[in-house]
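Why predict the complex rather than its parts? Because the way molecules touch one another can change local conformation, and only a joint prediction can capture that. The input here totals 439 residues.
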Amino acid sequence: MRNWRLWLGLVGLTLVLLSGCARTAQVAEPTAQPTPEVPPTAIPTPTPKVDYCLECHTDKDRLIDTAKPEEEVISESEGAG
Amino acid sequence: MLVSTDFKETTHGRFTCVQCHGGTQSPDKDTAHTGMVADPLTEGKGRCDLCHKEITEQYPDSLHASLASYKISMYARSVPENHPALDEAYNNHCSTCHSSCTDCHITQPQHMGGGFLDGHKFVKTPPMTRTCTACHGTRVGNEYLGKNEGIPGDIHFRQGRMNCVSCHEGATLHTTPEDARGNRYWGEQTPACEDCHQQVGASGDPIAQHVLHKDKLQCQVCHSVQYTSCDGCHVAISQKTGKPFFKTEATYLTFFIGKNATDNPNRPYEYVTVRHVPVAPTSFQYYGENLLPNFNLRPTWMYTTPHNIQRKTPQNSSCNSCHGNSELFLTADKVKPEELEANRRVIVEEIPAPIPGQ
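Output of the joint prediction:
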């Protein structure tokens, strides 16, 4: 019986010591690691599934239909520029 | 603007429209165009720098981008207190000549009708007549292409079929050497005729006149013909439209040899061709009275490099076609009385004497 109590005490002491080690590890300051720079890429993002811009700007008839009426620009400049 | 369907297959087509132009991907036109920039490079949103870093870093200092010589010329004839008014004139009338990457490699100028050069595809070598001479047309373009009536085009074009970039290489258009950033004639000659014609004036040159006149005459003195001069450009804002406009009083063909006032050891010539530039004391009068009080500090007949080179010209047909021929030289009687003081350094007071026996 006494032997059993001795072993129980030793196990308990070991756990207390181990838990102390665990606390020390938690408060340790993390070391900052440099983040490698990502070089700019010529193709930053993929083309969206539906490219509405191109869909319209490659359609001549649609561009004509939706274009704002052109204002006539009258230049008052005279002579060689 | 109609984009060609194969634009997406090109290298530059790998960007999405929004990445360069802003705006939003949307089937609704107004939504899509909100925040969109037609020429991204005018607002610094272009992405040229991602791949063309060296060019985009140097380009802002180039004369094509900075137009520095405009303000330098204006300020040189003025005083500091007039600079704000001149800046306003410059911003309204001159700064539109600034060219971005887009202006040479994607579009043609508005006064040529605007639009893409090739369906938004990027054109590596700008087409001469749709870009270069579209802006440099009145003088250089007309001279080079032979559009001045009765005057042949430049031999490099007529016989060599050379275009602008044959001499003015891309690197020299994208950058301007430090000493020439205020004026293209201040620095080294780039290009120089001798870059190709290396035998001219060298020992063994069979043409004696080359050896005799080397460094004394600019090449164009013997090898160019009549070119365009302009008078009296005045600028204003239209009362009707609110748009800026200009009026040039006269445009005419001349060929005059003047004294070299450039003070540039890279251009050591005693005699050079001179062209009348369209400035007048009242050019910017719309923006204030007497804005160019130091008008006489700078010539109105300026060093020029006509782009209509010929092998044979009236003045090089014999020694005395030039020597003793007062018609060729900018003498005081050919200068407007009110501009005599401004041109004191370029007026030829004593023309070279005829050579006896020639």
